[in-house]
STAS domain-containing protein
Amino acid sequence: MEKPGEKPLLKSVFTGENGDVEEDCSEKFPSVGPMLTSKLGGFCNRKFIFKRLPILQWLPAYEARFLLEDIVAGLSVGLTVIPQGIAFAVMANLEPQYGLYSAFMGCFVYCVFGSCKDLTIGPTAIMALMVQVYVGSLGANFAILLTFLTGCIILMLGLLNLGFLVQFISMPVTAGFTSAAAITIASGQVKSLLGLPGRSNEFVDSWINVYEHIGQTKLWDAVLGFTTIGVLLLLRSLRSKWSLMGKYLALSRNAVVVIGGAALAYYCSTFGSKPFSLTGTVTPGLPPIKLPPFTTVLNNQTLAFNEMTSMLGSSIIALPLIAILETIAIVKAFSKGKSIDASQELVALGMCNIFGSLVSSMPITGSFTRTAVNNNSGVRTPLGGIVTGVLVLLSLGLLTDTFYFIPKTVLAGVMIAAMFFMIEFHAALEIWRTKKVDIIPFMVTLVSCLLLGLEYGMLIGIALNICFVLYMTSRPNIDQALLRTSSGIEAMVVKPDQSLIYSSIEYLKHEVVKRTDKTQVTTVIIDGSNVSYVDSTAAKIFSSTIEELALRGRTVLLWNWNRSVRCTLIRLNKVQFHPLFKNGGLEQLDKEICNESLP
């Protein structure tokens, strides 16, 4: 009973024309104003700041005993990223120093915005390959601008909480893409491994180039290259041997072979001999801090911002997508079952690229190899990234003269050895064992990436996977059972296993009518226990299904449908649908069938 002065409660029922109590099925359009106020208001509160700046969460809880472990991990990652960064820059058709410019800013920025202690942001083989494909001979300014644009797009997706979009890219597609990228990268390094001329990094073109120039193989480049691969694989196997010494020797294996190769080349040069192709001059010193180039000069022509972006083409979309895929996949792999905030990782990755563009970085993303090194080194917090960044800066200031003597074949060996473990053979076997049909998007993505390029192969894989999903949603499973009432009346119960939308309703209609004709029952009961949503197209076709069954002399009952779905159908045609809805157990259903069957 309402108290005096109290506002009456809103009712969800009303009285119909026949005096029966009926549901109020009116629908109100969502109020946009309060929703926007709630979202925009969240940008100013304490919870949002702590969410977007994870350093405010882990730094106050930092313990002194973590420091040594973070320093060791940071040094291990630094010794890995320095030779890799140089190799990636060469792969991207940039001067070697740009690989080091790309290797330190991401470490600093991710320490503030990142939420995964193991993840390291920097240059990667896949991003270097994509830069080479799109930027080619356009010059470093295009790569730096691409870094800035990539960061802006990723940051925007993160701030709009669109991290969930990566859920639409399945594991078979991701595994196929990663495997194809590894094969493509390794194929592109064969020419440097053998000392052959040519610049192609695409899979097919790389092997054509090797076939055409195999006679020009440089013996000592090939010997040193294959030796490098062998030593790397041997050192990697020492991770579980020789206790602490073997562990850290394995973690720093890239630095070991690069230092050894450079020392050998320098030793040979003291005798006036140059048996290896060398990296060459690396510009010393730290990069200037400046805005990314929004104009540039190419072939004596000044290009404006819109002309530069036009020349970059689809890379402005492809690189952010690939960067997001790499980072989210790595965070998931090292989260150890913990939930991850994909949107925050996008914010962190976007900021890393934007700040990186201020120091002439090429596009960067999460590195699986260095993240594994970080994890194996026992890192405790993202502070390890600061140590890595400082080590890279020191190498830029003090060691660039020694980089001149690094043999290209050693860098190629480093790349090829790393790619061996990126090809996901285990994922293919796991997919085949778990669900054989999922091997199709894996293989299609793999082959498409190898033959058409990584970006097109990825899009083809995603499109195929979406087609699989759409097909499954358009073919719901329909359980069928025959029911005999206490009075001897036979009825058929059909129960779809999912919600009804425009893509699945025609199939349901066809199956219900076909099964009704086959069983020749007089009453059809459609159990809606599993139906939580019906769209307008499905409601309209569902109405025509009931009409068609009525024309065939069948009685239709709608059993155990939830309120939301009932209201959707009643709003379409109250007269048709309202009398058909029934609820309760089998006894109540038995009575309803008998009542409906009475003349």
